[in-house]
Every structure is written in C-alpha cells, then in structure tokens.
Amino acid sequence: MLFDPRPKTEKKDLYDRERELKEFQEALKLGENIILLLGIRRLGKSSLLNVGLKESNFPYSKVDVRSLYFAYGTIPQDVLARKIIESLLASEKSLYLTLRKILESIKGIKISGIHVEFERRQDLPSIFERIDLWAEREGKKVVIAFDEAQYLRLSGVRYDGLIAYAIDNLPNIIFILTGSEVGMLHDFLGLDNPKKPLFGRQYEEIVLDRFTRDESFDFLRRGFEELNANIPDEEIEEVVNRIDGIVGWLTLYGYLRGVKKLGKEESLISLYSKAKALIEEELSHILAYSKRYKFILKAVALGNTRWKNIKEYVEFRTGRINDAKFSNLLKNLVKYGYLEKRDGEYIIPDPLVKEIVAN
Ligand code: ADP
Ligand code: MG
To answer: Are strands 142-147 and 340-342 parallel, antiparallel or unpaired?
Structure first.
C-alpha cells in the first residue's frame, strides 16, 4: 500500500524512485565499496534501502544506527557487531548454515536461529574478516548497510577507521550508508578530507530529492485510487501546495485521509500535530547543544534569509554572539539538514518544519 506509513519494504509499494533504484543496483554490480544514500528526513532513504537490498539478491545486513544511539547514548561495538550478525543471518536463507558455521568458529559466539550471543567481548574487525571469508568462499559480495550512519560518529569507537580497514582489506564487503544529516555524514566519513582515514576512497552517491508537484499529485491520486477513496483533485492540489513534495508527509496525509478515513480538515490537523511532535522531538537533540538553533530556524522561518538579518534577529532574541560562533551554528544547521543555502540565502527545506518553528 502506497500510504503505509512505515518505511516500505516491497517494490510494489514504492512510488517511482526508478532512477535511484537503478543507480543502487548498478553501484552494487560495479562493485563500489561505499554507497551513500543521502537526503533530508522523510524523503524515503530507508524505504529505498529496504527495497534496493531486497531486489539485489546480495546477502545483506542492515542496522538502524539512530535507534542504537537513542537506546545506548553511544554506539557500543559489541552491540553493533551483534546487530550486524543477526541481521545478516536473518537475510540469508539458502547459505545460512555455512555462514553460521564460519561465525561460530569465532571463540565466544553462540548462535541459535537468528539470535546471537557473545560470551566474551568481540571486535568488529574479526567479525568483518569472517564475513568476508564466507563471502569469498561462496563467491558472493555481502552488503553491510548502516541506516542514519552519521550517528556512528557519536561513539568512542573510531568507526570511520574501522570502515576504512574493511574497505582496504576485505574486498567482498560493500558498505551502504544512509544519512539525513548529509553534512554530518560527510564530515564523519571525511572521504574528501586528507586528515581522515577514509580519504580518497571511491564512493558512489545517490541523492534523493523531493517529488515534483506533478509527482506529488500523482502519488496521492494513485494512493487514494488504491484504497478506492474518492478524493477530489482540488483537495489533492491544496495538500500538495501546503506540504510540498516530501513523500513522508504526503504518505501520512494519505494514511489519515484514506485509511483512517478522517475528513480533510481533520486529516490536516492530525498531520500537523503528528509532525509537530516528531519535529520537536528531533530538534530537541540539537537544542541540547545550543538553544540558539531554535532562534536561527525561527528567524529563517519568519523570512530572514541572509546571514546578517538572521544574526540580527538571533541577537535581538538571545543577546550578542560573535560572528565566528554564529557562522558555525548556521553551518551546523545546514549539515543537519534543517537549512539549505541557495545563492547566499538560507531556506528551510521542509515546509512543515518551517511552519512549526515559526509558531
Ligand atoms: P527516510 O528514511 O528518508 O526518513 P522513509 O523511508 O522512512 O524516509 O520514508 C518516509 C515515509 O514515506 C514512510 O511513511 C514511507 O512509507 C514513505 N515513503 C518513502 N518513499 C516512498 C515511496 N517512494 N513511495 C511511497 N511511500 C514512500
Ligand atoms: Mg530513514
């Protein structure tokens, strides 16, 4: 169902994204070692990852790094290692037994079904080595996917170095990393930063964009048709005007209106209140670093688009701040994906974020 609010897992439920899926499969076929899937929140990265992996026929492991971070406040190596193995075992049906055998040859790893237990500390490099060995013996490549990989930076473990080690030494492992906080992910990986371990490695980047107006309209039209819901074109047009081409919000509207069968106004109200709760929760994590982020976003939402005007607004609300410090906060908001800079002007790419921070 197009309006299923969970990340999609089946191609039939994924609207379009044909180009991105093709790039995904081609990057895998060409044997790229690192594939990045980038785009702001709710553009469908997790969905594309799920469907792409399923369609690829590669053995794969997928870990949601963000939920690990929220559960532990860091990314413990042991937990990450266990999650990687469990997900790989779950994805692999036909070669499960050989995979299990190789992994169980590591001292202290006990496997039952797809449940893994470590009886002693394990380190990821050894586990990656076994996975690579297994892949080589089976004549396969294995994908290790980290969803919202920028959270790997928030750990005492140098995961960038670890990935670099695997890229250089384990030719049968491919990494796919998604990131909503595109700048943060790039900073963390440092693929273009000579001071970082992954510098200079080949990588393929797949960037998700919002739907165009026509695509957004067509998406809603088809979603309602699939549910046999008779929704007038004028309403669809109005919704697209208000919430733009961010598929996550369009899906949520479709779900409330078409599945929950709320009226148009009720659906919009419910969409806004759900979006508000979600966005405020997400923002709370960066506001923990600086309260000024809120005022910067508010300044932009209220129509200040230039560095100088934004700074004036923020100073008016929070007191003086020096230029370098202010610039840094602004840059971070771009890296987090909350702001975009176009021709020297700052904008908020998500219309619901804009509306919510303005109020
Ligand atoms: P992201 O990982 O980028 O935040 P998700 O994959 O979680 O985005 O998708 C956000 C929402 O949009 C989910 O409800 C998902 O079902 C829906 N969605 C994303 N991409 C598509 C698509 N191409 N077709 C239909 N629904 C989609
Ligand atoms: Mg996601």
So the answer is: unpaired
